[in-house]
Amino acid sequence: MSRIAAILLATVAGWAGSVQAADMAPPPAPAPIPVPDVEIRLTPFFWASGLSGTLGARRNLPTVDVDVSFTDILRNLDFAAMVAGEYRNGRWGLLADLTYVAVSLDRSGDVVPRAPGYTGASLTSKTFTATATGFYRFYDSSSFTADLVAGGRIWSISTDLDLQLAGILPISAGSTHTWIDPVAGVRVHAVLGNGFGLSAYGDIGAGSSRLTWELRGTVDYAFNANWAMSVGYRHLAVDYRRGGFVYDTSFSGPIAGVSYRF
Fold first, then answer.
1. Structural domains of the chain, count
2. pLDDT per residue as tens digits for the range 123-179
3. Is residue 68, in this structure, part of any structural domain at all?
4. Would you say residue 140 lies in a domain?
5. Is the pLDDT at 26 greater than 70, yes or no?
6. In sequence order, which ranges of 25-133 are alpha helices (DSSP H)?
7. DSSP per position, 2-24
C-alpha cells in the first residue's frame, strides 16, 4: 500500500512540475504584421515636343496649318510646366499627368492659312492637358507588370489667331475651349536587371473630341529604392471641332523625367 502511495505521489509531483514549467515557458512570438504594398511617386519631366496639325478660331475665317519643331517652340516659348504622379496600393492605383505650354508663333512658314488671299498668320496658343486614370494591375511578377487603365483627359485650349488678308488687312480672332474625353489603355513595365527597365503606355478615347490617343515608351534606370530616371519618346494627338473652332493637332518628341518614390 505504501508502495502504491509513493508511486501516486511521484506521478502527481511530476505532473505538477510539468505544469509549472509550461506556465514559465515564454509566450509564442506574435505573427508578423504584413507591410502594405503602397507606392507614391512624383515625376517632373521635360517633353521636347513639336506641334503639327490644323487650327481654326471661328467659322468665317480660314483654318491654318501649323508645323513647328521643338526648337522653334523653345525659341518662342512663353511658359511651360510638366509633372506626373502615381499612387498605388496593391493592385489598384491612380495616375495623373499634367502639361501646360504657352507659345507665340509668328515666323513665316510656321503658321500657314489654308485659303487664297491670306498672306500671313501668327498664333498665340496656351495648351493645358491633364490625364487622370485609375488602374488595375492584372499581371504582376518580379520581372514584368501590366496594368489596365481607364479615366479621362481634360483639354483646355486658348488660341489667338492673327491673319493678314492681301498683306494689308489684319484680321484677329480668339477663343477658349475646354473639354473632357474618356480614355482607356494599357501600361506595361519590364525589368532588365542592374537597375534598367523598359516601360510603355498607350491609351485611346473620344467623347467631346472625335478622337484622342497617346503612345509613350521609355528606358528607365533606378539609382536606388527612391530615385529613378527615364528617357524615351511620346506622341499625343487630338481632333476636336466645335462650331468654327478646330483643334486637330499632335504633339510628339523626346521625353525625359526624374522620379522620386516616397
1. 1
2. 888 999 999 999 999 999 999 999 999 999 999 999 988 888 877 778 888 889 999
3. yes
4. yes
5. no
6. 70-75
7. HHHHHHHHHHHHHHHHHHHHHHH
Residue 205 placed within a domain: yes
Q: Provide the grid cell at 8.
A: 501516486
State pLDDT tens for residues 29-82.
565 555 568 999 999 999 999 999 999 888 888 888 999 888 888 888 888 899
Give domain status of residue 4, yes or no: no
Cβ-based burial of 258 (10 A; exposed 0-12, middle 13-18, buried ≥19): middle
Interval 73-113: pLDDT, tens: 888 888 889 999 999 999 999 999 999 999 888 766 778 88
DSSP state of 35: P
HSE at residue 80, side-chain half, CA atoms within 13 A, is 16
Q: Is 74 helix (H, G, I), strand (E, B) or coil?
A: helix
**DSSP-derived pairing of the beta strands 245-261 and 227-242:** antiparallel
User: Distances in Å between the alpha carbon of 16 and those of 2, 21, 214?
Assistant: 21, 9, 77
State pTM to two decimals: 0.83
Structural domain span for residue 58: 37-261
CATH number for the domain spanning 210: value is 2.40.128.90
Name the β-bridge partners of 255.
47, 232
